[in-house]
Design brief:
Keywords: 2Fe-2S, Iron, Iron-sulfur, Metal-binding. It is built from 2 helices and 5 strands. The chain is globular, with a radius of gyration of 12 Å. About 15% of the residues lie in helices and about 25% in strands. The mean pLDDT is about 95. The longest helix is centred in the last third of the chain and has 9 residues. Strands 2-1-5-3-4 form a 5-stranded mixed beta sheet.
Length: about 110
């Protein structure tokens, strides 16, 4: 089992130190849900299909995330509260290279 340490700031402005497994095929949206860092029904509304942007986060510290795919880019082009450092949590799959990742959960539309 391999875990990484990440920081997630919730929508209330509270930062949480989180341990995330990299060997369970989880994405950041699922980590946020499992730690209950966003109100039920306000994160991952589409089930992680990059179709709603409810899992949008702002990347504060990028230890080397994979590049954004076309579906993620298209969804963010239509989303609210988008910034230059916006990403969709459902598209960020937990991997060892993400050690030290810091994000803030974007406001829910």
């Amino acid at each position: 089992m391999s875990d990484i340490n990440i920081k997630i700031t919730d929508r209330e402005g509270v930062t949480h130190d989180v341990v995330a497994p990299t060997d369970m095929s989880m994405n950041l949206m699922e980590i946020i849900r499992s730690y209950e860092l966003a109100e039920e029904g306000t994160i991952g509304v589409c089930g992680g299909m990059a179709m709603c942007a409810s899992c949008q986060v702002y990347v504060i510290n990028d230890p080397g995330l994979e590049s954004m795919g076309d579906e993620e880019d298209a969804m963010l082009a239509e989303a609210y509260h988008v910034k230059e450092n916006s990403r969709l949590g459902c598209q960020l799959h937990m991997m060892d290279s993400m050690e030290g990742l810091e994000v803030a959960i974007a406001p829910y539309p």
